[in-house]
Amino acid sequence: PFDGQAPPQEMEDEEYEEDEEEEAEGGKKISPFEPAEKGKIKSPFDENGVAGSKKEKLPLTWENVQLVLDELRPYLQNDGGDCKIVEIDGPIVRLELQGSCSSCSSSATTMKMGIERTLAERIPEISEVVAVMPNQEAITEKGIQDVLDGIRPFLSVSGGTIELDEYFDDKSHPTISLKMSGPPLKSMAVRMEIVNRMKRKFPLVQDVDIKAADADDRAL
Fold first, then answer.
1. pLDDT in tens, 62-81
2. How far apart are alpha carbons 166 and 9 in whole angstroms?
3. How far apart are CA 91 and CA 114, in angstroms?
4. In whole angstroms, what is the distance from residue 211 CA to residue 206 CA?
C-alpha cells in the first residue's frame, strides 16, 4: 500500500538487509488505520509508532494537539479525509472531521481507536476527543418537532403518541428524551426507527431516551 521502490535484483544481501532495517525503523509511514501486509495490523502504539513509547509526552496545548494531528494527517488524507481542531474545552478536544471522514461509516472507530487513543497517549491530559461534523444542524426544539411530525402519523394509526420530554444540547454529550404512549411503545422496531431518525437529523446526539408517557404505559 506504500510507494517505496523495491531494491534492484543485483543489490547485495547485506545492503538489502540494511534497507529492511530502515523501513522497520520508520523509513516508511505506518498507518494506524490500515491493515498491513499479511493481514497484520500496525499499531500506532508500537515502540516506533505515532503514539509509541519512544515519543515524548506533551502538555495539553493547541499547538501540541496540532503537532500530533499533523503526524496522523497523512494517513487520513490518504483515504480522502482530514480533521481540524474546533475547540479545546478543558480536557476535551473537539475535532471537525472533513472529507471522507465526515461521511464514512467507520468514522466513529477511526476517531476512538485511532485519533483519540493517539492524542491521549501523547497528551495524557486529554480525557476525550469529540467529533464535530461540518455544517451540522444545531439541536433545537423546532428541529426535534420536525422529526416527530414525520413520525406521528404512523404512530397514530395504531393508537400511539409521542412528545418531546426534554433535551440537553451539552457539547460533550447531547441527549434527547421523548415520551411515547400506546401499543407502539412495546415495539423495538418502532423505537429503533425513532432513534435512527433523530440521529440522522442530529449526528452528534449520543442518547435518545424513549420513556412511557404515563403509568399505564409503564406497566406494559
1. 999 999 998 888 877 877 77
2. 70
3. 18
4. 16
- Is beta strand 207-212 parallel, antiparallel or unpaired with respect to 175-181? parallel
Cell triple for 23:
523501513
In the chain, alpha helices (H): 13-22, 62-78, 107-109, 117-122, 141-157, 188-201, 215-218
Match 519512544 to its residue by C-alpha cell: 54
| DSSP SS3 for 42 | coil
pLDDT in tens, 124-160: 999 988 877 666 677 889 999 999 999 999 999 999 9
Residue type, 102: S
C-alpha separations of 185 from 179, 210, 215 in Å = 9, 9, 13
pTM above 0.85, yes or no: no
